[in-house]
């Protein structure tokens, strides 16, 4: 039976055992989570009744939770501990929450942890931290072949999600501006600053999607990437055919990638996103608890007439039901959400 409310797909969590305090600002390698307001930090740690209450207020039926990628999650034992804690935390509200496993950056270790979480704890996918320079996160040089094989075998998606900024990066973000601007810039613009099409272009040109045609990747924060499609196509057209994959880039873009609405703040941006990728490849996300929004935007989109009723329902929950296994390929739900 289909849900009547959206399923939110990029909703954040942090392990309560993480040490967070103002002292982190002096630690060059620590995640700058101390920049977040105290109420937001409390919500990040909570996967109980308080989050369920907020979920209802946001007009959601279910949240897909994942740990914010930080340097500590590059370590396999830490990922295992964090994933076990998240599983224990959501067991009492399994009808409201599902989880994606945070994965280490080593491909073989990531594959093992994904297999463990999916087979033993029924997680619905995995998350790898993404960072351009490769320090503490996935870079273009990482060998993730074992992870892609495992994701295809278990038919679960992998989400590419930006690493949270660390102390050593704050000076670049600060750049002599008043202290009051550092927190909003670091927590809301760092993603756009850090994101680049180079990672997916590298994956494409490495023939990953020729070897794994059923691999499904979620871009948690597409940012400006959809608007760069014409430029990407122009660049790829200059590469000799013998150095390119068999599948065309647009074929891969339309069949192997999913984009979320986490970076959509108004109806105009939503329309732009919907014009750049098929409707069945878009997932609703509210970016909770960093931003508690989305309900009004989705209601505005539904009333705009831009999408047919069936298209709106696909974006709101139908695509997530199919991608995460809440609904089978014949359109039959695996239980009421």
Automatic annotation (TrEMBL):
It holds the Pfam family Amidohydro_2. Keywords: Decarboxylase, Lyase. SUPFAM superfamilies: Metallo-dependent hydrolases. GO terms for cellular component: cytosol. InterPro entries: ACMSD, Amidohydro-rel, Metal_Hydrolase. Gene3D superfamilies: Metal-dependent hydrolases. The keyword Lyase applies. Belongs to the metallo-dependent hydrolases superfamily. This is Amidohydrolase-related domain-containing protein. It comes from Ampelomyces quisqualis.
């Amino acid at each position: 039976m289909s849900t009547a409310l959206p399923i939110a797909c990029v909703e954040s969590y942090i392990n309560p055992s993480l040490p967070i305090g103002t002292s982190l600002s002096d630690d060059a390698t620590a995640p700058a989570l101390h920049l977040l307001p105290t109420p937001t930090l409390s919500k990040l740690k909570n996967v109980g009744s308080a989050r369920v209450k907020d979920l209802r207020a946001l007009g959601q039926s279910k949240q897909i939770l994942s740990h914010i990628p930080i340097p500590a999650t590059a370590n396999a034992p830490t990922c295992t501990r964090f994933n076990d804690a998240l599983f224990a935390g959501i067991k009492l509200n399994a009808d409201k929450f599902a989880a994606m496993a945070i994965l280490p950056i080593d491909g073989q270790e990531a594959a093992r942890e994904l297999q463990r979480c999916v087979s033993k704890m029924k997680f619905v996918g995995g998350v790898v931290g993404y960072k351009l320079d490769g320090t503490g996160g996935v870079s273009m040089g990482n060998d993730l072949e074992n992870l892609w094989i495992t994701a295809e075998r278990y038919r679960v998606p992998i989400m590419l999600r930006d690493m949270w900024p660390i102390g050593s990066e704050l000076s670049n973000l600060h750049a002599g501006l008043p202290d009051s601007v550092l927190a909003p810039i670091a927590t809301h613009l760092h993603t756009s600053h850090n994101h680049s099409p180079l990672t997916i272009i590298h994956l494409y040109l490495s023939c990953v999607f020729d070897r794994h045609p059923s691999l499904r990747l979620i871009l948690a924060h597409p940012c400006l990437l959809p608007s760069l499609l014409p430029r990407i196509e122009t660049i790829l057209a200059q590469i000799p055919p013998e150095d390119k994959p068999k599948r065309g880039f647009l074929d891969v873009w339309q069949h192997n990638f999913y984009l979320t609405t986490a970076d959509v703040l108004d109806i105009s941006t939503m329309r732009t996103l919907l014009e750049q990728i098929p409707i069945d490849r878009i997932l609703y996300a509210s970016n909770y608890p960093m931003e508690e929004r989305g309900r009004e935007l989705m209601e505005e989109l539904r009333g705009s007439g831009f999408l047919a009723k069936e298209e709106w329902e696909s974006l709101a929950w139908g695509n997530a039901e199919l991608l995460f296994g809440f609904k089978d390929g014949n359109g039959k739900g695996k239980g009421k959400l």
